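JOB MANIFEST
job_type = single_chain_structure
chain_count = 1
residues = 126
[input]
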Amino acid sequence: MAHFVLEYSDNLGEQESSIQELFAVLHSAAASTGLFPFKGVRSRAYCCTQYRIADGNPDHGFVHLEVKLGVGRTLDERKAAAALFFEVLTEHFAERCRTGGMALSFEMKELEPVLKFNKNNIQDYL
């Protein structure tokens, strides 16, 4: 399980296709680690219309990527995956970071196994 949850400011001009491209690269990156079953990799994005960044300059933008993981990976494995995912995120928004105020943030959370329930038949359709 790796679930990518993206929040971003509406002033980035991100088109649905751009977000889908980012998700495609993140999914490939997750698969490349060998740590995450592909059928359990999911992504979703939320465009934020109400926010304030620093001094309130409406040109400042933000992106926050949260990755939720099931348990079972070592700290070193999680660190390597986190570095890879943040690299993908940084590269995707590199041009925007070069041209204006931008805040990129990332966090990875490991979910408690006793508090997690899921049902998944995606493998039947892959």
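[summary]
The two ends are 16 Å apart (CA to CA).
The chain has a mean pLDDT of 92.
exit_status = 0
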